[in-house]
Amino acid sequence: MTPSDTTVLHNLYVSHRGWLQQFLRRRLGDSADAADLVQDTFVRLLLRPRSFDSHSGERSYLATIARGLSIDHWRRKQLEQAWLTTLADRPQELQPSPEQTALIMETLHEVDAMLLRLPARVRQAFLLAQLDGLPNREIAVQLGVSERMVKKYLAQALLHCAVLEAELDGLLVK
Question: Might you name a Gene Ontology BP term for this protein (predicted)?
Fold first, then answer.
């Protein structure tokens, strides 16, 4: 990043931080989360600098990034809440330690992100097989495809799982 890029980013930050924080606070209902996402928005912009033709173009781009981050934030919150609900039903002696809980949450977020990267049909086939335990024939009927295509979908999903496992084990460099 050149000194000129740094100046442009600084000016964008000074010009739009307050507006963006209000925008996110209204969306999220929490000032602290909004402040975090403002910073994340500008980090994204720092990683992928852009030039803009107008003030409204700057705001539009920042709002687009912020909306995406908000969606990610809500997905994470929903996933965490589902996990906490599951934990609440377990006896105290079977509760994971805070360290285990953090690792589990990190893994759940990674799995969720991996599933979102899959094409919709591949994701559906994988979830029907893994969560519902359906055989390929029933998955094919539900998806309106051949059993052979279901096998391809499942192979693609399993490949993604293997890559995710390797990433989580630290074997791959991102």
Answer: DNA-templated transcription initiation
Q: What is the largest CA-CA distance in the chain?
A: 60
Query: What spatial distance separates the first Cα and last Cα of the chain, rounded to whole Å?
Result: 21
pLDDT tens digits, residue range 61-79?
999 999 999 998 998 899 8
| 145 DSSP 8-state letter | S
Q: What is the pLDDT of residues 80-91, one digit of tens each?
A: 888 888 888 888
Under 8 Å between Cβ of 125 and 143: yes
Tell whether the torsion through CA atoms of 129, 89, 106 and 116 is positive or negative.
positive
Mean pLDDT (the chain) is 87
Q: Please state, in angstroms and rounded to a whole number, the distance separating the CA atoms of residues 64 and 61.
A: 5
Tell me how crowded residue 6 is: count the other CB atoms within 10 A of its CB: 12
Which domains does the chain show, CATH number per domain? 3-85 (1.10.1740), 96-168 (1.10.10.10)
Which two structure tokens, joined as six digits, stand for 26? 């209204």
Q: Which residue has the tokens 């805070």?
A: 98
Q: What is the pLDDT of residues 13-66, one digit of tens each?
A: 999 999 999 999 999 999 999 999 999 999 988 888 777 778 788 899 999 999
